[in-house]
């Protein structure tokens, strides 16, 4: 019996597609599921992001060797989200991002991995606290940047459906930073 041929994957680049939002509060603290009005009221950080690190969840396996075999087996252990950071281009005119994400700020980084596609199960929510914010100094010929480091304060919610756009709601980019 022949195996069915898989449909080709429609590949894409995250640049210009994925959206990074700052959402200070979410009403559904249990499921971490933002509503459309909450997303519409968030701040879209995407256009100012120069670099991303972390925002992943990984399992810390537990080694389980035994005397019956010379293979070191393992089992799944606890999950951990590594500390994460966003590097931003510094704005010469405004301090909007620096004020939103100052040291100690608590909120949520919401990532729409495939863009604002309602019902797509591609929304991740990372509850965070800002650990530090540091300007990057260089003599190289490049734009001024600063890095904001986050600690993930509890289990993130991943693969959530993007809420539908309701009548009369604004686009997610409502408060998008000027390019």
Descriptive keywords:
Pnp Oxidase, Chain A, mainly beta, 179 residues
Protein described:
The protein is mostly beta strands. It has one domain: Pnp Oxidase, Chain A. 6% of the residues lie in helices and 34% in strands. The strands form 3 sheets. Strands 1, 2, 3, 8, 9, 10, 11 and 12 form an 8-stranded antiparallel sheet that branches. A two-stranded antiparallel sheet has the order 4-7. The longest helix has 5 residues. 22% of the residues are buried. About 6% of the residues have low confidence.
What is the secondary structure topology, with strand pairs?
Layout: E1 19-23, H1 36-40, E2 43-44, E3 49-53, E4 57-59, E5 62-63, E6 74-75, E7 79-81, E8 84-89, H2 96-100, E9 106-112, E10 123-136, E11 145-152, E12 157-160
Antiparallel strand pairs: 1-2, 1-9, 3-8, 4-7, 5-6, 8-11, 9-10, 10-11, 10-12
């Amino acid at each position: 019996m022949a195996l069915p041929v898989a449909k080709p994957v429609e590949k894409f680049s995250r640049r210009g597609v994925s959206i990074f939002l700052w959402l200070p509060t979410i009403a559904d603290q249990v499921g971490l599921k933002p509503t459309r009005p909450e997303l519409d009221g968030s701040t879209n950080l995407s256009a100012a992001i120069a670099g991303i690190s972390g925002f992943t969840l990984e399992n810390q396996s537990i080694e389980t060797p035994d005397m019956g075999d010379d293979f070191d087996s393992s089992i799944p252990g606890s999950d951990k989200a590594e500390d994460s950071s966003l590097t931003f281009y510094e704005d010469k005119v405004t301090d909007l991002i620096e004020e939103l994400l100052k040291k100690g700020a608590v909120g949520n980084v919401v990532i729409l991995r495939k863009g604002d596609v309602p019902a797509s199960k591609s929304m991740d929510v990372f509850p965070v606290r800002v650990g530090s914010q540091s300007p990057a100094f260089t003599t190289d010929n490049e734009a001024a940047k600063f890095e904001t480091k986050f600690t993930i304060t509890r289990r993130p919610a991943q693969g959530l459906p993007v809420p539908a756009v309701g009548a009369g709601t604004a686009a997610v980019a409502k408060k998008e930073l000027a390019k």
